[in-house]
Amino acid sequence: MLRRTFFATAAALSVMAGSVGIASAMDKKDIVDTAVEAGSFSTLVAAVQAAGLVDTLKGDGPFTVFAPTDDAFAALPEGTVETLLKPENKDQLVAILTYHVVPEKIMSGDIAGKKANVLSVQGDRIDVDATNGVMVDGAKVVTADIETSNGVIHVIDAVIMPNS
């Protein structure tokens, strides 16, 4: 009897643990909500909204987003952000933002010790060098592998610009 009770209890705990794991995965926020909640991406979030990309980045994905911090945007020449946020510059803003997005989920462990040239949603390729830390087109990844429900965010210390 004791043995049967032990196995029944172990089975119940296993089911409960599985439920918690499933709930945790379901509780993950998407890329946009994660960026909003972090609090250090208000400029990026405003730009994504101005570019009309919120629904895309809330979509199924998977996406890898190289997310510049507010400090990274502040380091741009004075007036750059304000100019990009104007409706008449939406195409340029979309090009810059989509250059920060890769249409697949790339974790840091996938490229550790390697160099890669990954295709962005914008269409240009991004140079990624993970041989000594991680650099993305000259920007340093300061926080990697922030998993979301539809991909991953890697925080970078500079805004990267497309070639075209």
From TrEMBL:
Highest taxon listed in the record's lineage: Bacteria
Keyword Signal listed: yes
GO CC entries: extracellular space
Flavoprotein as UniProt keyword: no
Keywords: Signal
Domain FAS1: 28-160
Signal peptide annotation: 1-25
Name of protein: Fasciclin domain-containing protein
